[in-house]
Protein 1
Amino acid sequence: MTATDENPLGLLPELLLAGAAAAGLLLGSWLPRRRQWAVGLLCGLACLAAAAAAVTAAPGPATTAFGGAYALDPLTTTARLVLCGATLLVTALSLGPLRGHPRESEHHVLVLLTAVGSLVLAGAQDILLVAAAYLLASIPAYALAGFAKDGPGTEAALKYYVLGALSGAVLLAGTTLLYAATGTTAYPGLAPAGAAPAALLTAGTLGVLGGLLFKAGAVPAHFWVPDTVQGSAPPVAALLTTVPKAGALTALFRLGAVPLAGSTVPWPALLATLAAASMTLGNLAALLQRDVRRLLAYSAVSQVGYLLMPVAVAGRTALAQPAFLYYVAAYALTNLGAFAVVCALPQATTTDHWRGLVRHRPLLAVSLAVCLLGLVGTPPTAVFLGKLEAFTAVFDAGYGWLAVLAAANTVVSLFYYLRWLAPALTPGAAPPSGGEDRLARGTAHTAAAASLALGVAAGPVLALLDGAPAH
């Protein structure tokens, strides 16, 4: 058993973001409309402060807080850094389009609340806390999806809400069944025991997995992803495909590494099958897309498949945790970089609209190339090392077939990324530039450079990601 720490400062990163959200609401109610950007600045500073607090607390041993309900370990620390960095980038992407909007401050606050819920998902070690974090990560996101109050946004929010409410009910039902089977909701007590009814344990675990798979956007709970991403504003689409996904996948990894590690039910085989289905369906569907946001949406579904590979073998090989954590960070940077390029030219909605980008916006074209080739898994980008580590982990755990299938899917993905990239690197007339966002361009350059830097520094970073999760 690890030591238990009841000090609220153990949750300092989460408290900083939650406090900034509350302060942002108050500040937004006093500031005139032309100065609402100050709330965005406050949110950005809160993300930096939360990341600094996570780094400061990182060197300590793996512990739990609040009766074992919250884990403080390498999984939580890495998730904090990834989610705070991703939220900072999303806030930067939102500043330009929202300037002068009557609900500008509310948007920034909703982004922070979504991040807080995702952070708690990543660190939760109690099923009840997982359910509460699911709601906190979901409800603000529903509002963000329909924030524009236009036709596509309303449709996006409705589909996201209906499927999210259904998946939340499934998660709560699973929580109830697990409590009925074991008499506890804490992860260590959920480990299979002789006295617990196997059918209840299995049904309850399936319910919890179903809710988390929806939040991650994995098959079979992926139906909301393309319509919601296409109908939402580009900064919101960037958020939905990155922040809740990272939190939910970390929660899935912790579930596999702690309570499910000794189960006789073949959970690794189930998750490996869902990983294979997600990457295959996502890539095949993306081949048919011309709308760039819809293409990135199916790309996000396929990337969940790759990310589920180390999740499937959590607790069964020491290579799974560093592979997963590194890949999550790499995906977050690269995916946000691709969406930042979309935010920079919001009128260029289809792949054909990007023709001539290299001539008129050469740096933006380079950033797009780095991010799209990065999502494929091209060296020396970070996703390449993430995929390589994930392949190694599943091979080590005896799932070589999954690595072979993932490699084949990677080849398939090259075609639809190149269908977007080829026009962008072809000389021609300038892409539609109405509403061009300079801050989004800077964010795209930053994310692309960070993706390359993370790939180059893979060795030292991977060495920091090891260490058993808290129990």
Note: Residues 267-471 form one domain.
Protein 2
Amino acid sequence: MFCPFCGVNLPSVLVYCGSCCRNVRFLRSLQDEGPEASTPVDELIQKYFTEGHSYEIIVDLLKTKHNISVSFRNLQRRLKHASLTRRINYTPIATVQAAISEELKGSGQLLGYRAMWQILKQKHSLVVRRDDVMRLMAELDPCGTENRCRRRFVRRAYHSMGPNETWHVDGYDKLKPFGIAISGCIDGFSRKIMWLNCGKTNNDPSVIAQNYINCVVEHGVFPKRLRTDCGTENGIMAAIQCTMRSEHTDEFAGAKSHMYGTSTSNQRIESWWSYFRKQRSQFWMDLFSDLRERHLFNGSPAHTKLVRHCFLRVLQKELDEYKLYWNTHTIRPVHQSRCPSGKPEAMYYVPQRFDGSNCGFPASAQTLNHITSIMPVPATPAGDEHETLFGELQRQSGVRAPLQWESAVENYITLKNMSGL
């Protein structure tokens, strides 16, 4: 078989011509149809040689997997006849460079020079020195080479143009076994907590929508984008966001102003929940677990309602306190983040000091009044016998509404004993 571009004899058709460096892969089909087509043994030998096996391994693989007996000397002759070598007749550097450039266009940009060397041998059937691959990789992909030399896992950097560009909304369910659900929202640029509320549920769409409307009314702006997971509780909020943003003409107007995604991809609020657990919620989880260990809580509906009755106000007070402290604390710089460092409250209200600009859209008083008028009221079950019983027992015993967790625990035990739970 001869190269159609330069006329050089090609004993074995690989991918590139060793003389003119042109791609001759299409000749393989013609070679298979010719009178001197290679035998199955030669094809197996070429396959195992290209995969990088040693001569001894190739002999053993032919015998074990294919029941073909080939001597070591016969294997050497077949390889020589097919011009298959590893240390002579190296592929021209221009051909190697072209193959590496092709691989770097896709997922090959993640490979180091050793893995790239293997790909060149197995996929492109090139004969090349590993040091040459290392040098070419440093020339063609200097940034990737530097990152691999640092031996650090490179994460995607979060980027935001300014406050109100993206609000990240999510629910926190760690306290749900004890009857308390938390809903939160954080601004992607400033990391300011927009709302942090606890209640009976965070699965009611009207409850989440009410949190959103209250926040919009408080700050007087609609966010450019809203980011949530795929839960049904976000439906009304998403509809309001898309409806109000349909009047604008930017690239994220209308339906594009809300984005569904997985919880793991909602990184701003998900990463913040880890801070919240380490600094606040772990205490409450341990407190309620202690009640369970002392056989004062068994997870029944009546017990969860009693926990909510005694602890909800105290917990909401602590959430408001933590929201205030978080929004006024200093966030230190992080190399992997493109967002600024500083106090969330300052970054939200004076973004120009932090190389940002307000990306929100003002909400007129007329629009806010219209939204408030059509907003569905969260469902409140009427005549709940347990709530009525706990309220009556609290009035009879003269127990005051707790302001601290210690008094909330005392009230819980007192009302539990009085109700016979």
Note: The chain has three domains: 39-81, 93-149, 166-419.
Protein 3
Amino acid sequence: MSTKSLLDQKIVLDHGTGARLSRELVDFVVDVLGDVYTGEMEDSAMLPVPAGNIALTTDSFVVDPPLFGNGDIGKIAVCGTVNDLAVVGAKPEYLTLAMILETGLPISTLHRVLESIRDTAKEAGVKIVAGDTKVVGVGEADQIFLNTTGVGVFHREPLRMTSVRPGDRIILSGPIGNHTVHLLSVREGLGFETNVLSDCAPLNGMIAGLDELIERGAVHSMRDVTRGGLNAVLHEYSSAVGRVVSVQEEALPIEFATRMASDMLGINPINAANEGCLAVFVAPEAVDEVLAALHAHPYGKQAVVIGEITDRAEAAVEMTGADGKVQTIEELQGAELPRLC
């Protein structure tokens, strides 16, 4: 059956039986993914990788809503996996793609998600090499859930949290909070989504622009700022190195509309999920070079220094306000906002 004829249909349980309808659905998926899919329909993908270390990561995505203004669950799935590989210093190469589809899901929705997966995989330069599809009954999932596993190859030593040193400056590649505000606005019909777009993006191209600085030892560690937001990242690093992390509230890159929406929603942008923001831990003498490299890439034009790793031996995060007062930022006990990634 042609792709065009399937677009007006919906997912049914028989799409998951392994019989003819399953084969038609797989053919549909392969057709939409095009040349980013390299699988040969064997039970396992057989891949060439150079001798040495590889990076392996896996993640599941249950985004609500699965479609939003400038992206969807498919784009987030590729970005999230690619970014997790890139921040440890690996070159992303391969992805697997597993889908859980709810009966009744319009195939046109699946088509849009697959197009996003294809386009984002092309931008990131990765290939989808294996996949799986399961269909469940109404109410057993929420439209579509995805799982992606990524493989990356190391061409240098991995970047680790424990490599961060006292005196290192903390740089954010762009604004925080936009992804959360955008999805909440779409979900609740608040009207902010036209002014505040999700930051969802594959960051491996921008990170590649830091290669020389990483080789020189100027960049000590990186982390993509996703679930738990900036707050979670800062606490992870503080715990890993046993030092107080200090940030300046006025330096935090928060767009005006995002701040206004966050105030209205009663959320703090430092706890908000992001999908295209990079935290870079940099030797102080290399800050200007790192900023210049980030500013040269479209995803890093708003990169700024927000704080530093102090030499005080304690696992804590402090924030200095505009009035000079210092407050301790507590780590969240749980998720402030669910299902944004």
Note: The radius of gyration is 21 Å.
Protein 4
Amino acid sequence: MPISEDQLKTWAKQGPTPQFTATYETLKNCLNDSNSPYYSKDFSIFLQGSYKNDTNVYGDSDVDVVIRLNQTFYTDLSNLSEEDKKLWNAARSDAAYTLDQFKKDVTGWLVKKYGNDVQPGTKAIYIKGNGSRRNADVLVCCKHRRYTRFKSSNDQLYYEGISFFHSSGIRIDNFPAQHSDNCTKKHQDTKNWFKHTARIYKNVRNTMIEKKIIEDGLAPSYFLEGLLWNVPLDRFGGTEQQNFQDTLEWLSKADRSKFVCANDLYYLFHPTSLVTWRADKCTTFLSKAIDYWNA
């Protein structure tokens, strides 16, 4: 029997935000403290993830906070001509304050403030919740530039994102601002159905995890948003049941090999990339979701 209309309406609702807002403000004030060892540097603090994109659901706990060093950046020159690469290399200069030093300074400051609640992770610094403060991940990064043109510092074009390092030493480049902006536009273009639908898919995933139908980690929220971003506009809308069935059926039958992330700067699926989904995991999720819908 398909999931009821009322259940889908409940799942479409945004989760509570007051405690999250308080956690973010607390961490932002801590990271922006004038006594920190990096305070004199040029940096920004902002949100990413489900709370940033208004796709959080009941049960979401971690707050994703980004602290970005603005005066230092990594590059992707793969789209430049050989001549443009030569011009860029002639114009480049080494950073006086590195991302590695910035991360050490931020980590040390957080440990000073939160002690044993701070635990380094593979990508971000995890801060365990305490009292009214929720669990949080603090991602320390710098700017990233994917160049499409470089003739001089006054004649250049690039997509701006962020760069950070996995604990294995692999550099990860991503584009959270483009992801957020594109999801918002998709939401508007679907007459406010996109984020609504993303929350339903996340709740379906969470329910299947609870029922041990799928494993936790099979379908991260970021990739579910990317998956739905590829769905045509005319598949959204109608009743809750029609909307879910139409989007799910389209996704299950589509050629997903050319799907792109919501940032529109990476393919959604790749066998090894740390910023893309594995195609077999998506296939498993969709298959299990169809079975759950039809049960």
Note: The CA atoms of residues 237 and 243 lie 5 Å apart.
